[in-house]
Write a sequence for this structure.
């Protein structure tokens, strides 16, 4: 064990399993973003795909836990050949959101998915992440041509009747926001997306990125004191769990960390989790940036 | 009627209203119609102010028709003079408009009415012909939780009904009515709001009539309300409220607070 800290890491209880996440694409991705928090890449097979059958069993298991919404992530979920069938199946159980980089979407898939959504009571949401509102700002982080390809993906989604939520981290000074957003909205409109849904993720402090690559500082940990008057529902681990090919883990951010695996069944995984990791500190500062706006409500 | 009472009656009929948002003209039309229909009780599930003009005009109507009110997130905020409406928007544009209506409403609500709002209960529970009703604002567990039709699984609703020991949960807050029948004749419904149209291109607004017969079976009727929306729009303009809000009243399309809409609900709208 490392150096003892003066305060114990606080533990967070699962209030209710509102969201069930699936690491459906494992750690495999067609691109290699510099900031990817689980270092996904075309060669990272640390975590594998989930099969339709595995997802189906988990969906069944989730019903008695009263899960409200399902989220799918990776890696890139659409590298999983069963992805379309997985989403179709999920829409029989509840709302589904898939986090994609948008670069490999194929029209026949979207056609089937649109049909499945129309038959379902529930929404199917696509969240397309980019890192800047231009090739100049996006591509240095996500790779050559990724901006163009993601925009093509957005165009396809819109053509098939979806309204994708485009998420971007705020990498610009706040005073430029209006101008930058307007420019991006024009770009999207030119590409056929006439009423774009944008979600700007909160600003990371200058240097946070650099610190992260060197590991978190010792004092960058959540303490008991910090939890006083803090709205715990801001943390994903307070209302969700994630299925990976290893079992049930605490949250999508920590799957590679030791101790993040909580069990094989959802029942076993409803225990408290001690938020002792550096990433928990970021979560604490920025909130559940992974959820959709429609599911958010802050407590009094 | 106390909030925990049990009743039996051959047919019990009651009306549920939500989200008045200072639309006293729609409220008056709805209440007149409800009176003509004949009901045993009228409940208002909160959010009296916001959006519309002259917030104080809502209160005398609620009194006159003996409406039993609960506290919504807006009433809590206005009642206690908090900094915002607790609608939980993250989009800067949504927050900009939310702030305009909140500041206006807070400033124009009398102290007497604000004190009264603080005293309101946050839920009603009663049993009619063995059916256990739970009336709340957003959800039984959180006053400002959005339960949209397309993002709320039946499994989750079954959990809420079980956990809160109810057969019927009745909510408002989101602004769009819907219902879902569940196992063992349980049910969840959202009664809609009287304050603004439902983002469907129609100027009407909605409330809900519920009827329980002696066997405990439940009938739900969502009722559209026509009212003098031109007059409301005029008064909003006179009060300097945003063009965007007035457009919604006149056209039936939402122009703000769109971020919280899920895909399906958003697609039905214009913006
Ligand atoms: S697209 Fe997503 S999963 Fe793939 S490398 Fe980038 S951040 Fe990681
Ligand atoms: S990273 Fe965030 S969601 Fe995950 S365990 Fe830590 S605090 Fe919870
Ligand atoms: Fe509300």
């Amino acid at each position: 064990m490392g150096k003892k800290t003066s305060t114990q890491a606080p533990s967070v209880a699962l209030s209710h399993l509102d969201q069930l996440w699936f690491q459906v694409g494992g750690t495999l991705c067609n691109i290699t973003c510099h900031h990817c928090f689980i270092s996904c890449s075309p060669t990272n097979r640390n975590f594998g795909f989930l099969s339709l059958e595995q997802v189906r069993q988990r969906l069944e298991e989730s019903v008695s836990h009263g899960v409200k919404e399902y989220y799918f992530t990776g890696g890139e979920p659409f590298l999983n050949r069963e992805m379309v069938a997985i989403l179709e199946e999920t829409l029989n159980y509840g709302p589904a959101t898939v986090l994609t980089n948008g670069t490999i979407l194929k029209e026949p898939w979207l056609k089937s998915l649109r049909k499945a959504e129309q038959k379902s009571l529930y929404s199917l949401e696509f969240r397309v992440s980019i890192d800047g509102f231009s090739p100049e700002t996006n591509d240095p982080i996500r790779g050559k041509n990724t901006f163009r390809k993601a925009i093509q993906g957005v165009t396809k989604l819109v053509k098939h009747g979806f309204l994708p939520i485009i998420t971007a981290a705020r990498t610009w000074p706040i005073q430029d926001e209006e101008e930058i957003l307007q420019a991006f909205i024009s770009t999207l409109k030119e590409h056929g997306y006439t009423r774009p849904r944008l979600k700007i993720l909160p600003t990371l402090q200058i240097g946070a990125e650099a610190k992260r690559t060197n590991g978190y500082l010792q004092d960058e940990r959540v303490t008991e004191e910090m939890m006083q008057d803090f709205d715990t529902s801001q943390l994903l681990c307070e209302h969700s769990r994630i299925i990976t090919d290893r079992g049930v883990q605490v949250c999508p951010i920590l799957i590679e960390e030791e101790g993040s695996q909580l069990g094989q069944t959802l029942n076993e995984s409803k225990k408290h989790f001690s938020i002792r990791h550096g990433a928990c500190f970021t979560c604490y500062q920025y909130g559940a940036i992974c959820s959709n706006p429609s599911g958010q409500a802050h407590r009094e | 009627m106390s909030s925990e009472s049990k009743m039996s009656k051959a047919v019990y009929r009651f009306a549920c209203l939500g989200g008045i948002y200072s639309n006293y003209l729609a409220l008056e039309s709805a209440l007149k119609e409800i009176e003509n229909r004949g009901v045993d009780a009228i409940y208002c599930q909160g959010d009296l102010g916001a959006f519309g003009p002259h917030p104080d005009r809502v209160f005398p109507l609620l009194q006159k028709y003996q409406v039993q009110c609960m506290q919504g997130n807006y009433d809590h905020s206005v009642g206690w003079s908090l900094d915002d409406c607790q609608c939980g928007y993250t989009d800067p544009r949504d927050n900009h408009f939310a702030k305009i209506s909140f500041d206006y409403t807070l400033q124009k609500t009398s102290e007497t009415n604000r004190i009264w709002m603080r005293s309101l209960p946050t839920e009603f529970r009663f049993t009619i012909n063995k059916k256990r009703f739970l009336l709340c604002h957003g959800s039984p567990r959180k006053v400002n939780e959005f339960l949209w039709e397309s993002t709320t699984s039946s499994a989750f609703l079954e959990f809420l009904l079980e956990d809160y020991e109810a057969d019927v949960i009745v909510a408002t807050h989101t602004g769009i009515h819907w219902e879902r029948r569940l196992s063992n004749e349980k049910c969840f419904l959202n009664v809609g709001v009287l304050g603004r149209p439902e983002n469907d291109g129609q100027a009407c607004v909605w409330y809900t009539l519920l009827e329980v017969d002696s066997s405990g079976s439940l009938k739900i009727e969502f009722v559209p309300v026509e009212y003098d929306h031109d007059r409301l729009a005029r008064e909003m303009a006179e009060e300097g409220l945003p063009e965007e809000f007035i457009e919604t009243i006149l056209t039936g399309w939402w122009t703000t607070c769109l971020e919280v809409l899920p895909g399906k609900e958003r697609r039905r709208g214009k913006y």
Remarks:
- The pocket of fe (ii) ion (ligand 3) is lined by residues B 47, 72-74, 137, 173 (CB under 6 Å).
- The mean pLDDT of chain B is 95.
- Chain B is about 30% helix and 20% strand.
